[in-house]
Amino acid sequence: MLIRNIDIVDFKNIAEANLCFSPGVNCLLGLNGMGKSNLLEAIHLLSMARPMRSVPEAALIRHGCQAMMVKGVYEMENGVEERVSCGIVRGKGKTLRRNDKEYPRISEHIGKFPVVTVSPSDTELVTGSGEVRRKLMDVVISQSDPTYLARLIRYNKALESRNKMLRAGVNDVLLYESIETVMCDMATSLHEARRQWVEEMTPDFAHFYSSISGDAEKATMSYKSCLTERTMREVLGSERARDLALGFTSQGIHRDDLAMQLDSYSMRRLGSQGQMKTFTIALKFAIYDFLRRKAGEKPVLLLDDIFDKLDSGRVSRIMETVSAGDSFGQIFITDTNREHLDETLGSLRSESRVYEVEDGHFDEKA
Questions:
Q1: How many alpha carbons lie under 13 Å from residue 284 in its C-beta half-sphere?
Q2: Which residue has the higher pLDDT, 336 or 76?
Q3: 143 neighbors 111 (Cβ within 8 angstroms)
Q4: Contacting residues for 268 by C-beta, under 8 A, at least 6 apart
Q5: In this structure, are residues 282 and 205 in contact, taking their beta carbons and an 8 Å threshold?
Q6: Which of 90, 137, 191, 247 has its CA 20 to 30 A from that of 311?
Q7: What is the spatial distance between Cα 325 and Cα 179, in angstroms, rounded to a whole number?
Q8: Strand ordering across the sheet containing 257-262
């Protein structure tokens, strides 16, 4: 899959842009704050129906404007053309259309146009809370399993109801059990989906980390969940009295996490900035392979300022990875250094285009 062209109006600092892309590598060159990452954000919005970062949707509208619009044309592996448009109006919310038909539920869009983003903020996957890593699992699995998101929504609604009862001091066991039945049913399938995902991802992740680091270290990850040892019903029943005192549900799949280690030590505690970045890039490349297998489409790969804090050897091995064979498809890369970018392009065997970006304007260069 690739995105052939995009039209943007009043998106962040981009007043207007009409761009056609290479099916290979597309490079965005410019100083920080010029709009390189904003273009990647627009592609991500079209593909995933949400921005790359957790920000209010109104923040995507250019300052002083009342609405924004992004339209794109995708070409699928079978040659079928798909048109997607996303608009946001201040105070009125978002509309999303595929081939000029609005989705009844925006969640139906998830997984149709797979995209994988690598950005500087990814180090939060190592340094941040478990919520960040759970969100990653949920977003990726939802793209490959359309039923997963519906089950997660049902679990979270039941969890919210249980927490309201706990805060209100409700002590009716039967009332709790009626809510917990839904949580238990959903938790069992969600836990199994996450367990299988981590099991399938781990070998690819280890392979990519080894390749990028030059076999300098061994990185591993594992799934942490209270459901590994007990059922959800046992967890909720045994913790109910404690949860009443706390006023919230202290254990469950909403507390799941990924353990990340480097040579048997905690990546979070001992990993350098370069090692953390290598870890997250390897994880995102493994996610790319996972989605490619599940969707039957090569996701669009967005590489946002990934070369910062990496030595030249790791940069070279990253580019070798994405250019070797035909595993990776269309790629977008941002950088601030033209000389660095030319070296990067010289190592690739794909058709490429370079755009210089300044104040939200895009100028294609030879």
A1: 30
A2: 76
A3: yes
A4: 126, 127, 260
A5: yes
A6: 137
A7: 51
A8: 219-224, 257-262, 265-266
Token readout for 214 is: 């030059």
CB 11 within 8 A of CB 38: yes
Q: Write the pLDDT tens digit of every residue in 215-250.
A: 888 889 999 999 999 999 999 999 999 999 999 999
Helix (H, G, I), strand (E, B) or coil at 269: helix
Order the strands of the 101-102 sheet from edge to edge: 14-20, 2-11, 67-75, 81-89, 93-98, 101-102
Which DSSP state fits 218? -
Residue 279 tokens read as 């870890």
191 SS3 class: helix
Report pLDDT digits (tens) over 79-138.
899 999 999 999 888 999 999 999 888 888 988 899 999 988 888 999 999 999 999 999
Identify which of 153, 157, 158 has the alpha carbon closest to the alpha carbon of residue 178: 158
C-alpha 245: how far from its chain's center? 36
Which one has a higher pLDDT value, 336 or 154? Answer: 154
Alpha carbon distance 202, 219 (integer Å): 10
Alpha-carbon gap, residue 79 to 101, rounded angstroms = 20
